[in-house]
Amino acid sequence: MTYRQTWQDWLLHKALPLWSQAGFDRDAGLYHERLTFEATPITLPHRRLMVQARQIATYCQAALNGHYDAGEQALTVLDHVTQRYHRADGSAGWVFALGPDLAPSDTKRDLYGHAFILFAHGWAYRLTKDPALLHRAEASLAEIDQLFPSAHGGYRDVLPATSDRHSQNPHMHLLEACLTLFEVSGREVFLHHADAILKLALHSFIPAGTDALLEFFTPEWKPERPAGQNRVEPGHQAEWCWLLGEYLRLAPDGRHAAAARQAQHRLHDRLQKTAPGPFLPDALLDDGSMLEASTRIWPQTEMMRLLAQHGPADIQSRQERLAIMSQLFFTHYAPTPLNGGWIDRLDEQGKTATDHMPASSLYHIYSAGQAILGTTP
């Protein structure tokens, strides 16, 4: 069996059914946040907007791709999410989380969650062509501009603010959402926002003189720490490489196309040098030294997606590494006894470092899986 066939069997017949069945809370009409390794739901004090949005987007994509038909379930969840999270406390935006009683348990606004609810609307619109979804996406983007703007460009991470730290990660996912919405609608407002985020990324997230994508910044978008002491996550580096490829696909003559292509090659080259092994570590410093040698599942899937799509390297070398990473994925992260589930984190010795399966990982896994299934064996 080729690695592509293994992915198809596991993803379509095990993982996607698991998380739409055991991972779906029928009483609440929402998705569960976590399952035990025996696929039993775990009750938590918070049910985050981000997790709901990721699952909605994933199952809309799976329905569109003909991989698994749980699109109607996802659309119903989106209706419930809109009713319960959007302006649930009477203020603009989407609340962070609901409690077990389905009332808001945390009413802060986070850019990360708002990016993913936009992403979910993009895929739901693509599935249904319901103009109300596109209208709500545009309104939510306007709320982001209203709620989160930072004095020096870009956006704050969370409101009310708990620190002055600024992060690249929510911007990355807002870029992803805007590109998705631009592709399905053709509306310039989404490309305009994507261009603005990309300009910030090219200028500040990847500081001049380095090929490292940094994580955290001052309010002026300067590196949070001195050179050599800043956190770099190879998984996000791979994710940005792929997103830059998406920008180039959707806007080949865009205002930042040339710079995006150069940045993609620089990030990819550094990724090969600082994380050449089969697994991507959780974190390095910007001088290339190891910060966290543990490994999570999502950086591996981001690297596999890049190998399947938009990787600057030649196709043969990408396919060879993809085959190796796929074999290790099913050995270490998605072993057969879990029957569609996964181990989210391994410690430095490669041993399981978690006691549950988080639903949030499915977004990363499916993104990689669908890219792999779109390639030739």
From TrEMBL:
<comment type="similarity">
    <text>Belongs to the N-acylglucosamine 2-epimerase family.</text>
</comment>
<protein>
    <submittedName>
        <fullName>Mannose-6-phosphate isomerase</fullName>
    </submittedName>
</protein>
<dbReference type="InterPro" id="IPR010819">
    <property type="entry name" value="AGE/CE"/>
</dbReference>
<dbReference type="InterPro" id="IPR012341">
    <property type="entry name" value="6hp_glycosidase-like_sf"/>
</dbReference>
<keyword id="KW-0413">Isomerase</keyword>
<dbReference type="Pfam" id="PF07221">
    <property type="entry name" value="GlcNAc_2-epim"/>
</dbReference>
<dbReference type="InterPro" id="IPR008928">
    <property type="entry name" value="6-hairpin_glycosidase_sf"/>
</dbReference>
<dbReference type="GO" id="GO:0016853">
    <property type="term" value="F:isomerase activity"/>
</dbReference>
